[in-house]
Structure formats: C-alpha cells, structure tokens
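[Q] Does anyone have a clean structure-token version of this?
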Amino acid sequence: MNYIYHNGEFLDKSKPCISADNRGFRFGDGFFESIRIINGEPVFLENHFNRIMDGLKVYKIDTPEKFSKELLKSEILLLLDKNGISQGGRVRVTLTRKGSGFYAPETNNLDYIIEADTKPDNYFVINNTGKIVDLFPDLKKQINSFSIFKTLNCQLYIHASLFAKEKMIDEALIQNEKFGIIESAVSNIFLVSNGVLYTPGLAEGCVGGTMRMNIINLAIENSIKVYECNLTPQNLLAADEIFLTNAINGVQWVGSYRTKRYFNNTSKKILDMLNKSIANPPIVA
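[A] Here you go.
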C-alpha cells in the first residue's frame, strides 16, 4: 500500500481524500513543490521551503503557526518510512486554500498533501540520448507574480506536453507573451556558448526552479560565467549546448533543436558538480 500525508494524517493513496468542494480541485487555487529524495533524505529542502513560503504569501494563504522547515522535513521522513523509501525517490507537496466558497474564498487556511514515490536512481544521472526539442506555438505564458511558482492551473504545460507527444519529440519549449523562450513544459533551460551559461531571468516569466538556482550558484562557485537574459530561437541555433534542469532529474542535455545538433560536455560537467554537492555521490563518466 502507498500512503499520502494529508494535514497530519496518513491515508491510503488509492482512496479519496478530498471533497468535491476542495478549492484546488474546483479552481486550481494553489501550487505544488517537487522535491528529490537521495539516500532517503530530501535534498535542497531549504530552497524548496523558502519557495513554499514565498508561494503562500503570493497566493495569500495563511501559514499555520507551527509550519516550519523542520516540521516539513519530519513529515516527509515519516512518509518515506511509511512507504519504504530508503534510497532514491520523489516527493510532491501540494498546497491549496482550505474550504469552499466560489471565487471569493471562505477562508485562507492551508490544506496540504505530501506524496512520496520511489525513483530507480539514487542520484542525478545524465540522459544517454540527447533530448529533441522544439517550440510550442499554440499558447504563450503570461508574465505575472504567479509565473515563478508551479501553479495547479497547468493547462499551458499539459498542452505543451501534448504537442511534444503529437510531434514525437521529447520536450516542448515555452515562450512568454514577448516571444522569449523561457522554459520547457517540465524544466528550466540553459544555453551554453563559448563556455558561458545563458538562462532566462525570473522577470521573463519562467518558473523559479530550485534546481535552476542551484545550477547558477554552482557555476559561479566554479568560475563559470552565467547571464540571465532573453532567449530567442536564433540563440538556440547559435548555442554550443542546451540543457534542461529540474528538481527531480537534475540536468538533462538536449541533442537537437530542428536542424541544430548539440554537444553535452558542459552538461556532464555541471551534473558532476551537482552530484559532488550532495553527500557520497558517484562521479559522472
């Protein structure tokens, strides 16, 4: 049996746990956070917790008095133990506004669910084959105060993923309303040109990924220049490498965009730095 943790209670994941008037279900009134588990421990938890707190503030959801990073960690560890996860895994924390009401909520109290599943790799692993990417043409992402969070209103990402599936490619790249390339359906994006990293800034509307922040910090610590800037299709065609980052998969290299083909030397180097920043990781070959 797989369990979830809902407001302090373990529940069977296969059984209903929310009511029909749940605001996350009815209105997408909330957001979620994905956390990687390595050696049975949540990694980069402080960064995730800080983004959760920022999200609660922006969404105007009240933070419970006892809600803390230490409490969240203890709840995650309890759930991992309950589900028998002692090595690699992934956790999703879904945070919504409690109560019913229509667009105007009846309360701003917090309702949250923690899910935990195993992952076969107990560390970050580079993909063997480079991902094939292309631009998603149908919808553009609006730039606003919610852009940096993983909102429960995921239609943009769902349709970008459907587009990728229809085109038989691995990832669809998303543009903002100014036609800047800002992310993929599931990851932040980095370009490499002459040994320098380029990635969209948060002001461009990309998700403020915790892995994005970690990669920027690791690069700077290792004397690799990083520029946050607007990205265009022309930049993709001129780049030496492209890689995608997220909290669960770490770094994934892109092999092609249309007729352009890419290397993965920097992607491997960055992934090696990432694994070395975590206790007892393997070295990327």
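[Q] Thanks! Anything notable?
[A] The helical segments are 23-27, 45-59, 69-82, 155-167, 210-221, 233-238, 265-276.
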